[in-house]
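1st attempt posting a full record on here, be nice pls
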Amino acid sequence: MKAGDHNFLSPPMTAEQGAAITHLEFSGRGLPHLHMQFGRMDKVMEKLRECTDEMMTGWGLDMARHKTLQARAQPIGSPGDWVLSRDYPMLLAISGVRALVNFRLMVDEQGQTSSCHIQQSTRPAEFDALVCKMMMQRAKFQPARDAEGQAMASYYRNTVHFSIPQ
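the predicted structure (as tokens):
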């Protein structure tokens, strides 16, 4: 099992940057090259920002403060230590069942996890329940900080990969 860290801070896209996006290109080993021409994307990007703001407000976050975010919630210790090999559900391990569980933790102003939400999972549900149980017990954070350096509620996302070595 391992957890990857996907909790990076990227600067928000400006309207000018959104307007500059006119196409997407996809390519990879053994895959055909795909080029999609769109035209200006500034209005689309603005709607996406509005949608994201609304979603995060629904999570209970103060979007006015969140837009001034100076630092995201930072794990204390290694996220890889939050779900351990001994936590793997025994029957699923014996059966060789694998899973990917993407989760989101809500982190309060003190750096404590206030809730756990499964964002996406390959299932079975035992993995989802285990991830949230272990996160709520073991995950600790330095809280997010706003522009004035004040602690604030925020979130943390990551993935747990369950697999038995062959």
